[in-house]
Write a structure and sequence with these properties.
heterodimer, A: about 325 residues, alpha/beta, Rossmann fold, 2 domains, 12 strands, globular, B: about 325 residues, 8-stranded mixed sheet, 4-stranded antiparallel sheet, 10 helices
């Protein structure tokens, strides 16, 4: 499979006075054509930052970021806002978390479509062309009465409806990659289900690749082909979804999975403590403080790359032993 | 014995929109009870009236019709608004809110937050209160030295623990938990869920757990109420009936949860309509779920289904069941 997006050593640091605090530590990943990569992790683990970093949307006054981002084999200049603007919305589109605040309240939904198409497209289109395109897309998103919606303002519509419109807007210029940052978090359960189905169906129709970020294991397991588990700005585990879901290797992944009750009344196995804040992060294994299986050497464990176990990468000393190395060598 | 009894409660709100006044039923004819030492889960989507019901029970709002009894005494003030009857029950009925940062005074230290109900409801001396605060902090899994921290110095999960300690301070009989988990991380949610289940066991407190997270509700609840459009759709008095729930709305809710796979043959995306307010209007007499229901019949539009007993401890309001 061809790689559509490839990210190498993305490093994001928060500027604080003369110092910089690492927020994302050299993550590398790739998204294949027509596939979905899900990044899962708790708040503050750097998931959203990774997305914004890839799109070049970070404020340069606040963040210092480095890394190579390839789209379709072409190196993107993520620090050049002008160049990135041509790519954003055109080749990479973003779906944001809170649909209620992502729209401009003083212009109609139709005006959003006009703006998006005219800003991203190479040729300007007439209002009629845009309208028919928008109605067609909204119909695909299963919005009832798209004509009424086209004339409405954002505050007149419900959250689920707006999220569907946001997806329609993202698809207007037929992007190759869709970045979805917690697309269902602000929505109700049944609406979340509908949105997930739409994303799934849309991927089939357009062969779009999706980079989806969520803290909800259910959403990720439903949509993703590959999963990356993020904690403290690093990937703890990365690999094909069915393998990670069935048999998580990293203690953090295991802890995350067993934190959900999963319709049983048995006492939950919980991880102590809470995710570290940016300033509280140490060197070595980020999960050290909360890990129930830590041993000597874990505190200093900080490899450049995780251990590869068949087709998955795990960043843990328990896995990175001579024994597994020998087994892998054999 | 039932501790809280909700009898045919209705709550009507008036909304002004473009100069016209509309009134709608936020809670419409809801009855159920919370038994002593048990946890009732109340689930539904946003706007279904579950939080309004919580506010009615605490006495923050008065029901338009019907009554809410705590130990056979009415909680609501009725027409006499001068008497804050709420205070009489405040000691016994305590609430834990969704966003803990909004629920505490940011200028207070943890000690002051937890001490407040002790000052209001007991005649403890300052030393006794201090000792009690430390005790409560230990009960919710915090440390003694945390008592001098301000709200913003805590993480979300820790502050939710402080809120639980505050609710425990007055020695309540009932907790109204309004989405206590939804602003927390998954790993912290698990900690709070375990804490709540310990408190329930050790201190014999009854819960009304309001949440949209069926998975978490299943973990804690002994009984379950499913609401939609201000009305109860389905109700089970024993959580072991969970797999037998069959109201079309409950089925839809369950099929939306990726983790719940026991259900087979559920409808996929019947019709995608958001909840309409008109089903809650005064003059609408049908079933509130009629617009989205894939199994609707003509009768559903005209007549509201009555709550009927499908089997012992299992009730549903639906014409086709």
């Amino acid at each position: 499979m061809a790689k559509l997006l490839e990210v190498k050593n993305l490093d994001i640091r928060l500027k604080k006075g003369k110092e910089t605090i690492p927020a994302v530590n050299g993550v590398s990943f790739s998204v294949e054509k027509g596939k979905t990569l899900g990044i899962i992790g708790e708040s503050g683990s750097g998931k959203s930052l990774t997305c914004y970093g890839v799109m070049g949307l970070l404020d340069k006054k606040l963040w210092d970021y480095n890394g190579e981002v390839y789209l379709d084999g072409e190196l993107l200049d993520i620090k050049d806002n002008k160049k990135m603007q041509k790519i954003r919305g055109n080749k990479i589109a973003l779906i944001m978390q809170n649909p209620m605040s992502a729209f401009n309240p003083v212009i109609t939904i139709g005006a959003h479509f006009v703006e998006t198409i005219n800003k991203t497209g190479e040729t300007k289109k007439t209002k009629e062309e845009i309208r028919s395109k928008a109605l067609e897309l909204m119909d695909k998103m299963r919005i009832r009465d798209p004509e009424v919606v086209y004339k409405s303002y954002a505050f007149q519509l419900s959250g689920g409806m707006l999220q569907r419109i946001m997806i329609a807007l993202a698809l207007v210029s037929e992007p190759e990659l869709l970045v979805a940052d917690e697309p269902t978090t602000a929505l109700d359960l049944t609406v979340q289900h509908e949105i997930m189905n739409i994303l799934h169906g849309m991927q089939k129709d357009y062969e779009t690749s999706i980079l989806i970020v969520s803290h909800d294991l259910g959403v990720i397991s439903h949509l993703a082909d590959d999963i990356a588990v993020m904690y403290g700005g690093e990937f703890m585990e990365k690999g094909p979804a069915h393998k990670i879901l069935a048999d998580p290797e990293h203690p953090y992944t295991r802890g995350l999975f067993s934190s959900r009750p999963a319709f049983s009344k048995e006492r939950l196995k919980m991880m102590p403590g809470s995710p570290p804040r940016l300033e509280e992060r140490g060197t070595g294994c980020q999960f050290y403080g909360r890990c129930g299986e830590r041993k000597n050497g874990c505190k200093e464990y900080s490899p450049d790359k995780g251990t590869m176990i068949s087709d998955r990468e795990v960043r843990c000393l328990l896995v990175d032993t001579e024994e597994t190395q020998r087994k892998l060598g054999a | 014995m039932s501790l809280i009894e909700i009898k045919k409660v209705k709550k009507r709100y008036k909304v002004r929109k473009f100069g016209k006044t509309y009134s709608f039923m936020a809670v419409n004819d809801v009855s159920f009870s919370v038994e002593e030492g048990k946890c009732v889960g109340l689930v539904g989507e946003s706007g279904c009236g579950k939080s309004t019901l919580g506010r009615l029970i605490v006495g923050l709002e008065n029901p338009t019709e019907g009554e809410i009894l705590f130990k056979d005494e009415s909680v609501s003030t009725g027409s006499d608004k001068k008497v804050p009857k709420r205070l009489k029950f405040a000691r016994d009925i305590q609430m834990v809110f969704q966003d803990s940062y909004d629920a505490v005074n940011p200028k207070f230290t943890a000690k002051k937050i937890i001490e407040e109900p002790l000052k209001n409801f007991t005649d403890m001396t300052a030393e006794e209160r201090e000792k009690e605060v430390v005790d409560l902090l230990h009960k919710v899994g915090l440390d003694e030295k945390d008592k001098d921290k301000f709200a913003l110095e805590f993480s979300g999960g820790q502050l939710q623990r402080v809120c639980i300690a505050r609710a425990l301070a007055s020695g309540p009989k009932v907790f109204i938990l309004d989405e206590p988990l939804s602003s927390l991380d998954v790993s912290v949610q698990a900690q709070i869920l375990n804490l709540l289940s310990d408190i329930k066991k050790d201190m014999d407190i009854s819960y009304l757990l309001i949440s949209h997270d069926l998975e978490a509700v299943y973990y804690l609840a002994d009984a379950l109420v499913v609401m939609y459009g201000g009305q109860i759709m389905e109700k089970i008095d024993d959580i072991s009936y969970f797999d037998k729930m069959k109201h079309p709305y409950t089925q839809r809710l369950l099929s939306s949860i990726p983790a719940y796979e026991k259900l087979d043959g559920v409808q996929e995306n019947a019709e995608m309509v958001s909840m309409d307010l008109h089903v809650q209007a005064d003059d609408f007499s049908g079933c509130p779920y009629v617009g989205r229901c894939p199994k609707r019949i003509d009768l559903c539009k005209e007549k509201r289904p009555e709550m009927k007993e499908l089997e012992p401890k299992h009730y549903a309001a639906c014409h086709i069941l």
